[in-house]
Fold this sequence. Notes:
The chain is an alpha+beta fold. The protein folds into 2 domains: 127 residues, no CATH class; 68 residues. It contains 9 helices and 4 strands. The chain has a 4-stranded mixed beta sheet with strand order 2-4-1-3. The two termini are 34 Å apart. The model has no long low-confidence stretch (mean pLDDT 93).
Amino acid sequence: MVEYLDTNEAYGGATTRLLNPDGSTQYYMHRRFPTVWRLLPSLFHKRFRWFKPYMVTQYLYLDNDFSKDFDIDQAAGACMMVRKSIIDDFGELLDVKRFPLYYNDVELSYRLHQAGWKIRCLNTVAITHLKGTSVKTLSFFKNGKEYSYASLSYFKKHKMYFNYWILKLLYLELFLILNMFTPLLLLLGKIDKKQAKYRWSIIPVILTLRL
Length: 211
C-alpha cells in the first residue's frame, strides 16, 4: 500500500483484498457509496442471499473480479491507508464523535472523494479479517440504535436530505413496530424495565438527531 501511494499521486488512500479465516475472499466490506436505494435492498439481501438485484451487486462490488486491482468508493476500516498530508488537511482521520462504531470508514472515504482523491483496492495482497467482532456482543436494539444513528448522521452531515428523510421515516416505522411487543415482554418478565426503557430510547434519537 505504501509503495502504491508513493508511486500514484492521484490516490489518497489504499486498501487490500480481505480474507475470511478459511482463506476465501471476504465480500460485502468494500462498497460503493450508500444511498437509500442501495441500502434497503442490501439489508434484505443480508437476510436472504438469493435476493441479489443489480443495485445490490453493484453496491457491494459482487460484480467485480477481486483477483485484479480496481478503484473503489469506500474502503473498509478493517484495512485502510490514508496519506498523512490528507489527515493533516482534514484535521482528523475519523469523525468518531458522530460515527463511533458504524460509518466512520464510509464517511472518511466520502471526504476523500469530495476532496478529489481516489482509493485503490490492491487485490494482489490481502489480510485476514475477523468480521463482526466489534459488534457481535451488542444486542439487536443496541446494534440497531448505533447503526441507525450513524447512517442518518452520514446523510445529514453531507446534506443528502432526500436519503436522510426517507431513511428516517423507515427507521421510525421499523422501531415503532418492533416496540409494539415491548410492553408484553416486560409484563411477561422477558425483559426488565431498563431494557424496555432502552428499546424506546431509540425513537427520540431518530426523531431529534442533531449534528
